[in-house]
Amino acid sequence: MQIATPYLMFLGDVPDALAAKTAYGIKDWRPEWCIGQMRLPGCKADLGIPDLTLPEALAKGCRTLVVGVVNAGGVLPDHWVKEIVAAIEAGFDVASGLHVRLGAVPAIAEAAAKRGSKLHDVRHSSETFPTGKGTRRPGRRLLTVGTDCSVGKKYTTLALEKGMRDRGLDADFRATGQTGVFISGRGVAIDAVVADFISGAVETISPAAAPHHWDLIEGQGSLFHPSFAGVSLGLLHGAQPDAFVVCHEPTRTTMRGVAHPLPTIRQVIDLTAQLGALTNPDIRPVGIAVNTQALAEGEARALLEALSAEHGLPATDPVRFGVETLVDRIVADFAEA
Question: Where does the source fall among the domains of life (predicted)?
Fold first, then answer.
């Protein structure tokens, strides 16, 4: 899948920034591709880049309209369709990470066929995957797991890739969500894979490698989330991680989109180790990544120190304070492995 850059980021009228996390992720990690944003009245997200009309975006060289939103079920709201059709008629390609295929919407399909525009459904892979086998394979793997969805697993994994490469380690980010695929140009949106093949898909994108090579696998959902635990478990078994980092957002009391209480970090560590041992008996936690955006700096540092002392693991905010302590722990734990 070759998506033409640069992008005009379409945010629709999403109710908050989390609902536009795909757009934020692309902007944060590929800012040079994001020329402007297009928002509808009532939109509560703002990427901090220029608001552009379709003609203005074309004049600035934008080639693809990216539907940079996520929502429950991955649906495409009816009132967005005319905006996407207008973009196609203006000469844009369109890329989306939603579950609904762009070409399944008649008005979009007809406009694309007439204009010759390309439609990219990033969430849907054209590959077929085997069932997972669970056989140990060479190479090292790290998986980010979470107390909830949308807590920073992708950002942590990307930050670790940079931090480990800066330290001279052989490490590659492996995308398992639509935003990660937009950012890295490869991977598979694991939540769109038929359930029987989830673990096999992860084995496919993280195959056997050199003994000291690290695949850094983007986590999805949470083992405790009633909506997404099945995806998270298949991902854990296919990733066969040697190491995992727990990602957490400290201001939440219930899990996103449901009434279930947030699990503790200890519960996530224990269950991940227990279930992950099925395909890698040597699995171990190496750190805690906390999204402290809602906390003042002093409060954030105090929380991280307390969590580190409580769990005996380095704790950091990868965006705010970096991942050096996590890399230190990885190097120390696997120096002789």
Answer: Bacteria
Same domain, 62 and 192: no
> What is each CA distance from 143 to 63, 156, 212, 242, 302, in whole angstroms?
34, 10, 16, 8, 26
Residue 6 preceded by cis peptide, ω within 30: yes
Contact 227, 74 (CB under 8 A): no
266: phi then psi, degrees, rounded to nearest 5:
-60, -40
User: Going by DSSP bridges, is the β-strand pair 119-121/93-96 parallel, antiparallel, or unpaired?
Assistant: parallel
With H, G, I as helix, E, B as strand and everything else as coil, classify residue 23: helix
Per residue in 5-53, pLDDT (tens digit) is 999 999 999 999 989 989 999 999 889 999 999 999 999 999 999 999 9
Residues 37/47, Cβ–Cβ less than 8 Å: yes
For the chain, count helices (H), then strands (E): 11, 11
Question: Is 101 among the domain residues?
Answer: yes
Residue-averaged pLDDT of the chain: 94
Please give the order of strands across the beta sheet that includes 140-146: 171-174, 214-217, 140-146, 243-248, 284-290, 315-316
Is 170 found in the same domain as 115?
no
Q: pLDDT (tens digit, 9 = 90+) per residue, 207-247?
A: 999 999 999 999 999 999 999 999 999 999 999 999 999 99
Q: Which two tokens stand for residue 242?
A: 């040697």
Say which CATH number the domain at 196 has.
Answer: 3.40.50.300
CA–CA separation, 239 and 44 (whole Å): 35
Does residue 1 register a pLDDT over 80? no
User: SS3 for 66?
Assistant: strand
Q: Which domain does 315 fall in, by range?
A: 140-334
